[in-house]
Amino acid sequence: MNIDAWVWWLIGAVGLGIPLVLTAMPEFGMFAVGAVAAAVTAAFGGGVVAQVLVFVIVSVALIAVVRSFANHHREQRPQHRSGIDALKGRSALVLERVDGRGGRIKLAGEIWSARALDADSSFEPGQQVDVVEIDGATAVVM
């Protein structure tokens, strides 16, 4: 049984699609598209050299374009802070007197232990303070 070259290229494209699905590595998808392009070249009567060149050129071009697009997109994406990093810099309401030894604040809808950044400072209930950092379960404010 003699199978045409374009069929082999399509089998190769399917074979490259399997690791794409299993590993979620987009490079396999680029190689699969390159194999489809080589199958088209073979179907139109291109020789083995032309088929391999089309496969390599299409695959490499797709990887270069997609990778540069992905890198550009990753750099443009805003960085979202989460967890305690999201609390730094936020304002809080003093519930119980806060000084260098302790106190209570309402931060992001929750009641937190707090202490003043400067041990000589104190904040009275009702005042707004800014969270400088989170030290364990204690908000350091000023």
Features:
4 helices; five-stranded mixed β-barrel; about 140 residues; alpha+beta; 5 strands
What does this molecule look like?
It is a single chain. The protein is of the alpha+beta class. The protein has helices spanning 5-23, 26-43, 48-76, 84-87, and strands at residues 91-96, 104-107, 110-116, 128-135, 138-141. The chain has a five-stranded mixed barrel with strand order 1-2-3-5-4. A hairpin with a 2-residue loop joins strand 2 (104-107) and strand 3 (110-116). Helix 1 packs antiparallel against helix 2 and helix 2 packs antiparallel against helix 3 (48-76). It is rod-shaped, with a radius of gyration of 30 Å. The protein starts with a helix and ends with a strand. 23% of the residues are buried. The mean pLDDT is 90.
Question: What is the assembly state of the chains in this entry?
Answer: single chain
Q: How many helices does DSSP assign? A: 4
Radius of gyration: 30 Å
In which range does the helix fraction lie?
A: 40-55%
Instruction: Return the average pLDDT rounded to an integer.
Output: 90
Major sheet details? 5 strands, mixed, barrel
Return residue spans where pLDDT drops below 50 for at least 5 consecutive residues. Answer: none
**Sequence of secondary-structure elements:** HHHHEEEEE
Q: Total strand count, please? A: 5
What is the SS-derived class?
Answer: alpha+beta
Share of residues in strands: 15-25%
Q: How far apart are the termini?
A: 82 Å
* Spatial strand sequence of the major β-sheet: 1-2-3-5-4
Label the overall shape. rod-shaped
